[in-house]
Task: inverse folding
């Protein structure tokens, strides 16, 4: 699980936190930092292709921090190949 958020108390930049990858020693700090920020997007990524998904998320964050407007629908499209799909 991950969350993209905008920092509130620091410099207002967009960040991502991968909750499932947090180590015990930094878990509380990172979760508190994300909770203090402004929620932008969250979701789950599959283990298969995880590194490519993280690269895509980083590219999106760079675009957001450069002032580009990215909406939820665009994020959904960009991340679609990496999101788990519901099985019918």
Result:
């Amino acid at each position: 699980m991950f969350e993209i958020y905008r920092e509130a108390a620091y410099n207002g930049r967009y960040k991502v936190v991968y909750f499932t990858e947090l180590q015990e020693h930094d878990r509380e700090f990172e979760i508190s930092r994300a909770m203090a920020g402004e929620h932008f997007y969250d979701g789950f990524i599959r283990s298969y292709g995880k590194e490519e998904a993280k690269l895509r998320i980083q590219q999106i964050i760079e675009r957001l921090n450069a002032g580009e407007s990215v909406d939820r629908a665009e994020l959904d499209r960009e991340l679609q190949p990496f999101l788990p799909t519901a099985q019918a």
Q: What stands out?
A: The longest helix spans residues 50-65. The mean pLDDT is 89. The chain has one domain: 2-82. Helices lie at 24-36, 50-65, 72-79.
